[in-house]
Amino acid sequence: MKAPHDGAPPADQAGGAATTDTAATVTAPAGRGRGEGLSPPSWLALVFLLPALLLLGFLVVYPIVYSVIRSFFDASGDGFVGIDNYTGVFKGHDNLVAVRNTAIWVVVAPTLVTIIGLMFAVLTERVRWATMFKLVVFMPMAISFLASGVIFRLVYEQDPDKGVANAAMVAIHDTFSGGDQVYPGAGPRTTANSPVKAEGAAVVSGSPVAPGQSALVPLLKVKAENVPKDARPAAAPPRAGPGELTGTVWFDFTKGGGGTQNAPNAGETGLPGVKVEALQGTKVVGKATTGPDGTFTIRKLPSGSFTVRVPESTFTASYRGAEWLGGTLITPAIIGSYLWVWSGFAMVLIAAGLAAIPRDALEAARVDGATEWQVFRRVTIPLLAPVLAVVLVTLVINVLKVFDLVFIIGGGEPGAGVLALRMWTEAFGGGNDQGAGSAIAVLLFLLVVPAMLFNVRRLRQERK
């Protein structure tokens, strides 16, 4: 048997070498890294991005550039005015009010929304119906600002029969004040023979009255709508007993004429619900309220003479609530509607941040003896600081461009104006000065840019 050749490798080694040589020949093409053979060329990516870039440039870049250029020209667009449109933003009553209100919005609204959202987020961790609570609070975010403005325009109606806010205020006021029937605008005759006279806004007897006597209080200028339905024809004062003082308060007017002045006549109406006071000097020593026929009886009076007085509250207009849409309260009222809309947004973001807080940090603080308030203030708030900052800055950006609520609820009230509304008014809402409107738009853009950069920087830091 012939031995194998000394220089030939064994069969198994020869196969291994062949395999190695074959594997060595399968290499990546020269000049390409791993995976580069599957990636598309750069020009193809640009082709796919080109429609989006063109749309972005048409909808964003072009309006910004055009607004900047237009802001340096006058209303006609032909005359170059330099920075006059920018300085004009801080001139004029309406513009200064808009600048002031915008500053109030930026300071107050985001802060309150963030605080309320934080409170809601913390509370939802401790209530049983947390999901339902979050749903109810977040629900206004599903409503447009236009619809929200219409809703709160009705809420802030001056008439308590229509406005929910004033209806609640009137109900609370009447509950604690007694809800006395009043006859605004009524008063006595000014003739010399009248048994009563005006003393400021009150009505007092013209001569002193002693116990056991009666007093007549005829009034004029009583509006029919102010007379209650249970009012009856005026009656003569009842007979006064010892220590008593009686009288009648009535509308001294006979339909069709006739009758005797300063005395209850047939067809004249008693005025129920009127408070009558007996004064000895300046001290009130007795009180009574007239009945359906206008009569009253003051009992347990001391000896001496008295002055009968119907207090001024009887003749002043009844409480009708606050003037929410007036010059003083209109900005706080609109901010209140903004809180209603955006508190749910802040609550959801802050609740997500609370869920990400490690529970062992909170438990460690409680084990060390910290109270719940100390845990919240020294542990929860510092850990939530990044989330709170993002929420606050996002709301600042949103507040700077608020328009819908102010336009709908304010209804053109100058005291409610903000810069975004002034921009629309100057350019399209009657001002017909697109130069001034463009200047305000550019200023708003410059105010929003720092907040946007802050948010972008915060997001990049979180990714790292």
Which labels suit this protein?
9% strand, 13 helices, 464 residues, single chain, alpha+beta
Class by alpha and beta content? alpha+beta
Sheet having the most strands = 5 strands, antiparallel
User: Widest sheet: strand order?
Assistant: 1-2-9-6-7
The total beta strand count reads 9
**SSE sequence, one letter per element:** HHHHHHHEEEEEEEEEHHHHHH
Alpha plus pi helix count:
13
Characterize the overall form: elongated
CA-atom Rg in angstroms: 40 Å
The fraction of residues assigned to DSSP E strands is 5-15%
Low-confidence stretches: 1-35
Helix content: 40-55%
- What distance lies between the first and last C-alpha atoms, to the nearest angstrom? 74 Å
Determine the mean pLDDT: 85
Protein model, in words:
The protein is elongated. The protein contains 13 helices and nine strands. Helices cover 49% and strands 9% of the residues. The model is unreliable at 1-35 (pLDDT under 50). The strands form two sheets. It has a five-stranded antiparallel β-sheet, with no helix packed on it. Strands 3, 4, 5 and 8 form a four-stranded mixed β-sheet that branches. It is of the alpha+beta class and 464 residues long. Helix 2 crosses helix 13.
Question: Topology of this protein?
Answer:
Elements: H1 11-25, H2 42-70, H3 84-88, H4 93-124, H5 130-138, H6 145-155, H7 164-177, E1 196-199, E2 202-205, E3 214-219, E4 245-251, E5 269-270, E6 275-280, E7 283-289, E8 295-298, E9 307-310, H8 330-356, H9 359-367, H10 372-400, H11 404-410, H12 419-427, H13 434-463
Parallel strand pairs: 3-4
Antiparallel strand pairs: 1-2, 2-9, 4-5, 4-8, 6-7, 6-9
Helix pairs in contact: 2-13, 4-5, 4-8, 4-10, 5-8, 6-11, 8-10, 8-11, 9-10, 10-13, 12-13
